Amino acid sequence: MVTHPSILLIEDSPGECELFHLALAQTGINVTLYIEQDAEAAFRFLNHLAAHVPGCSPGEAAGVVSTARIEGAHSDRAHSASTETMPAASPSLPALILLDLNLRGQDGCDFLKRLRSDPRFTALPVVIFTTSDDPIDIARCYASGANGYVVKPGTFAELVQCIHDICRYWIDRNRVLPMIGTPC
To answer: Which of 30, 36, 48, 142 maximizes the CB count within 10 A of its CB?
Structure first.
């Protein structure tokens, strides 16, 4: 079974997650969408994936993943992976992480610094996807290791186009070195 690329969206607003899911479905791009609502859950999820990726050293893999998992962009609903196991065939890390800067009670830059300090995740593309257009926030994110910074658009049509553009670049156009024989 061949898996298609995936995106990990780290966003604490259920409404924003649903809008993102609906906009992603409108793009026609077939990706698996994983959603985490806080930084700790995102780390547990990434550790779980890394433990099953050939070449990655075992991390703090959790036995149960609390991720909302959406199978492909055309799925009608998210379902909890806390009662399911992760897919056994062709495990891989997400092709892209979209990170909200302003998580409830958490700073996205702190998550990003922690992610970049783990050698298994330093090469994962992370795009900040937030409402802030503050130059100080932008500078902090790039200094913390962000690969991109996108301000959330104001309308649904703009959101669909924005997600389409992000996916086309980071999933279809961007090239990374193959992970074969290299540690994560």
So the answer is: 36
